[in-house]
Amino acid sequence: MTYRILIAYASKYGATAEIARKIGEILSESGLKVTVLAADKVTDVTPFDAVVLGSAVYGGSWRKEAVQFLEDYQASLTKIPIWLFSSGPMGVGNPATLTQGWHFPSAQLPIANHIHARDIALFNGVLDVDKLSFIEKQVIKEFQSPSGDFRDWNAIRNWAVSIAVSLRPEVAE
Question: From CA 3, how far away is CA 98, in angstroms rounded?
């Protein structure tokens, strides 16, 4: 059986979209049929056998497009495997440590539990101050957030491989 996987994402400046595309690439290499789309471009999840949904995080919240996706497709997502990821903590090291244990927006946790998310991952993000608005730059300055690309591509790859193995155990062999 060829599994059809939807990877949906909500990204403001493109870093989360790049993570979604990398996950898609890894799942494709595992023999899965992958579609990668912005969450607000998805019109139906029923053609898919599994979903991976990710969002950039700002101030502990997911982007509205990802939240809307969860709300719109909640009933369908209870019937298929789903994995969730957040992208956003700045700095080098364990993202859960950088966020003092935070790993998922509390407002969406009831839906994540209801749809029985297989896993919820948190990945370090990117802060490119050249892309920020004046107000965003002021907030970053106030919080003294480090700028740069902090994504751990090995962690992202390992997580994607774990999804592939879950869907196609022979991938692990």
Answer: 35
User: How far is 102 from 124, CA to CA, in rounded Å?
Assistant: 12
Domains and CATH numbers, the chain: 4-172 (3.40.50.360)
Q: What is the DSSP letter of 147?
A: P
CB 55 within 8 A of CB 63: yes
Strands 4-10 and 33-38: parallel
Residues 37-87 have pLDDT tens digits of 999 999 999 999 999 999 998 778 889 999 999 999 999 999 999 999 999
C-alpha–C-alpha distance, residues 66 and 73, integer Å = 11
pTM, full prediction: 0.86
Strand 50-58 to strand 4-10: parallel, antiparallel, or no bridges (unpaired)?
parallel
- Short-list 48, 7, 23, 53, CA closest to 151: 23
Site of tokens 């992202």: 156
89-119 pLDDT, tens digit per residue, is 565 655 555 555 556 667 888 888 899 999 9
Report the phi/psi class of residue 27: left, alpha or beta, with left for phi > 0 and alpha for psi in -120 to 50. alpha
Round to whole Å and give the CA distance between 128 and 150. 11
